[in-house]
Amino acid sequence: MSAPKVIKYHWILLIKLVERKLMQPLNSSSILTKIFTKVLLYAAVFAAAYYAAFIDASDGKILVGNSVENYQEGLLVLMAILSGYAAWRIPALRVVMVCLAGLAAASFFRELNNQLEAIFHKGFWIIPVVLVLIPTVIYAARNFKTLLRQVDSILDSFAFGVYFTGFLVLHVFSRLFGANDIWKLAMKENFIRDVARTAEETTELLGYSIMFLGTIELYRYGVSKLSSKLD
């Protein structure tokens, strides 16, 4: 058989295989299970954030030592652990996940500022934050090109979109939404600072919750799409 005929034969075979794959019936039960599982997971995380704020409002503990802060700290611990595990499990995302683990760990110590200052002294929380951030930044700088390649590999993924949305909710929207200005306009002479504080803390928790879900999605994406790929 001549070379053109061999090439033509293989193209026909490939097309038939693709057509056969596309014509296979979808397993609707497995798709519905995936949808239900994702909806259940997201709803549970968001509902927990609401109830943490509700408990604090009921107990009058909006400022410190409350359920919202405890939930934030718990999410950050889980994010740090999952990101560290993903860094070990998925070589193609190792640098990214190490950086995310460092960010979660540093944020955890930042959220513990009141507890650390009560045990040690004012501003003590800066020490563990710096001790986490410095090696993380050094690692990112030494692997900067690899970091860029890995970020590029997830940039257009749903997982990255979820994580980045949570990051912006945490660091942009929660700060704006919790500012006094909007609540002074809404409540006028009846302004209550605790209302603004509740809004800020709750939307901050929402941001952490979305970032936690984004970390899960990044791990799932890495395992399904990149686990066999060596960077």
Structure notes:
By secondary structure, the protein is an all-alpha fold. It has one domain (3-226). It has helices at 3-23, 28-59, 67-89, 94-111, 113-119, 126-142, 144-154, 158-177, 180-187, 193-226. Helix 3 (67-89) packs antiparallel against helix 4. It is globular and about 60 Å long. The model has no long low-confidence stretch (mean pLDDT 85).
Q: How are the elements arranged and paired?
A:
Blueprint: H1 3-23, H2 28-59, H3 67-89, H4 94-111, H5 113-119, H6 126-142, H7 144-154, H8 158-177, H9 180-187, H10 193-226
Helix pairs in contact: 2-10, 3-4, 3-10, 4-6, 8-10
Brief sketch in words of this structure:
The protein contains ten helices and no strands. The radius of gyration is 23 Å and the shape is globular.
Strand content: under 5%
Low-confidence stretches: none
Radius of gyration: 23 Å
Structural class: mainly alpha
Provide the succession of SSEs: HHHHHHHHHH
Whole-number tally of structural domains: 1
How would you sum up the global shape? globular
User: How much helicity do the residues have?
Assistant: over 70%
Features:
231 residues; mainly alpha; globular
